[in-house]
């Protein structure tokens, strides 16, 4: 397959960093650290992580008295706000409120969160629009993964590599995810504990415990713990769950299914959980399409088979969100054994009377080293080119991540996920497995408009397994990626 860009050209221009971020087509070859691990931050005597902020008080107070603006976006399926104005009963909102107080006291600034329109609405302003207009209001901006690569190519953001005070080795930065967020050895964006949306957009499998018990299925928790939770095991359970309730030979929402999910989410969920990617990065940190990889094709064919041939997936749902409301209702009413859900949408099941469990997506086989969890997409805080002071932005970023790791994420993880949303101790243990090995696939996130949503979602929704469809699309996808990388070279290569 043709390389996406000329390696000689890129090496000549971009061989300026000692960072090595090479992701193999098989993610099982890559060891990742969870965001509870760090080269700098260590545990204390109680076993809790003790984070340190290595910025002196004089630097922190350098902008005392200033009003600092952060642009965030309105989202219904993720937590985006930087500030909460009032004390609430919600554990996360409460800690976000206290985070603002801490930042304002520590830095002596007035922090203002400006919430823009929904990303999908006509009123939304892109970073390109704001920067090109010369708007120098914002010290930080919330940018979606798709927008980030184009903003970088258009020269609208300051790369993390070029910011003072940023220490991505710290445990409050996402050690497991940020290696995926480089291209050409440049850390153009990064995420950390302040980006709660990354937790919201992490996917897991929910299973209806009552239906699971009625069908006499194996204990899934035991299978996970023994390393035996595989795609074949899941297939066996789904087939037993499938049932035509009314006997009319027409599969519809009144029947029972093994698996409920939005069509866009199915293939990438199993590619990642089975240890492969839509887009991998080569030894020069360049994106390469993985569509012709043998394992990639094997997993895709397997998913088509178990979902379509065995009629385990409910294909006639009415789509509205990443986790369709109709699928949530069917799961709640016992017409689905498994529901593919982000953690944000797990909250919609808090009032579900029937108990449910939470497990990671299955491995390809028992030989696979570990389980992987998919982060479907994300918003990163970036420093716009027109920011008032890049050093202020960088210091604010570090303080945001530091306090979030100490207070906000524990509230989210321990009080909301573990205490409010899980129904049993086994599911609590599953959360640690899920969040230890999170994976960001560029084809599922940064390039999802042309790869996941632009190609594979339609293929899966229409039961199209013809590899010629993939091959025909590869050239246009490569052109788009190539064009963006060439723009980056033009912008930063001189």
Low-confidence stretches: 7-25, 31-40, 42-48
User: Per the principal axes of the C-alpha atoms, what is the gross shape?
Assistant: globular
- Percent range for β-strand residues: 5-15%
Strand order of the largest sheet: 4-3-5-14-6
**Major sheet:** 5 strands, mixed
Structural account:
- The protein has 494 residues and is of the alpha/beta class.
- Strands 4-3-5-14-6 form a five-stranded mixed sheet. Strands 8-11-7-12 form a four-stranded mixed sheet.
- β9 and β10 form a beta hairpin.
- α10 packs across α16.
Write a concise synopsis of the structure shown.
The protein is built from 17 helices and 15 strands. It is an alpha/beta fold and 494 residues long.
Q: Keywords, please?
A:
globular, 17 helices, alpha/beta, 494 residues, 4-stranded mixed β-sheet, 38% helix
Chart the SSEs and their pairings.
Layout: H1 7-14, E1 42-43, E2 49-50, H2 57-60, E3 67-74, H3 91-107, E4 110-118, H4 127-132, E5 138-144, H5 145-153, E6 157-158, H6 197-200, E7 203-208, H7 209-214, H8 220-225, H9 231-241, E8 257-260, H10 263-273, E9 279-281, E10 287-289, H11 294-309, H12 325-332, E11 336-342, H13 343-346, E12 356-359, E13 373-374, E14 379-384, H14 390-421, H15 425-436, E15 438-439, H16 452-461, H17 467-492
Parallel strand pairs: 3-4, 3-5, 8-11, 13-15
Antiparallel strand pairs: 1-2, 5-14, 6-14, 7-11, 7-12, 9-10
